[in-house]
Prior knowledge:
CATH topology of the largest domain: Leucine-rich Repeat Variant
Amino acid sequence: MKTNQQEVGTELVCQWIIQLSYPGTRENALIQLSQKREGIPNLAPMLWHSFGTVAALLQEITSIYPFITPPVLTAHQSNRVCNALAVMQCLAVHPETKLPFLEALIPLFLYPFLRTTSKERPFEYLRLTSLGVIGSLVKTDNEEVISFLISSKIMPLILRIMETGSELPQTVATFILQRILMAETGLTHVCQTFDRFSHVAMILGKLVLSLVSQPSPRLLKHVVLCYLRLSENQQAREALHQCLPDQLRDSTFSSCLVNDKYIKHWIQQLLKNLEPQSDQLMAVFETKKMFFFNSRSEVTANIQLMNKDFLQGTGLISL
């Protein structure tokens, strides 16, 4: 009986994939695949190697470009393209399709969505889902991914969302920055010039100030981890002596730290790294060890939870 059920499931998946190639059946196929993608382990290779499927997904994405400038995107249009992005996210996370996904330059098709600034819910949802695709690319260590993102000029887009977005997009964008910084390529890029470092430090500082009036432990966590990673670079460490917000040095966030021993420990480690006589080799070891325990499974679960909370709250999609 279990075998028959599995065969029926596979037949349905193949049917939905075929339906993606036909405009009249595409919308329902996108809904079904986006809702059931977690239960289809090999969905990404099936999508990638099936005829015309990736082209159909790109067609869905590019079809709404005329509606983002000027910002006249409707909830239905946003819902439909976000279903396509959710299906595309499978390609970004699967080890067999991740690099081909990058080599085809597909993430670039999402950048126009990240450039939008409208505060309307359809645009918030569009940015958040697009960030989810990029977040899937960076959630595992891969220098090729980081090099691609840096060379494709994603940093200004991420930093703008961190500065002007609502909490959920800010949190995912800050996580993406954190993962970029964790790669040596990313840390070197940010700290290579004063302008780059000062821009990142300014945005992180603004986030800290905003968290004083609107506390968010999960956003604070990623902000602290960004600072902690920056403190491993000598030039950045010297600058942080002057520009690290006082709120991270005093008891401003003590209420957020009561139930989160990790954030408290990271702040302590950050301040230790900034001490003139600190043992830098030990500091680097401690930072790497902390990231090992937290940056993968816990952060991935947080992003999934944030997406679910947001989608249910907007009513744009039924989960």
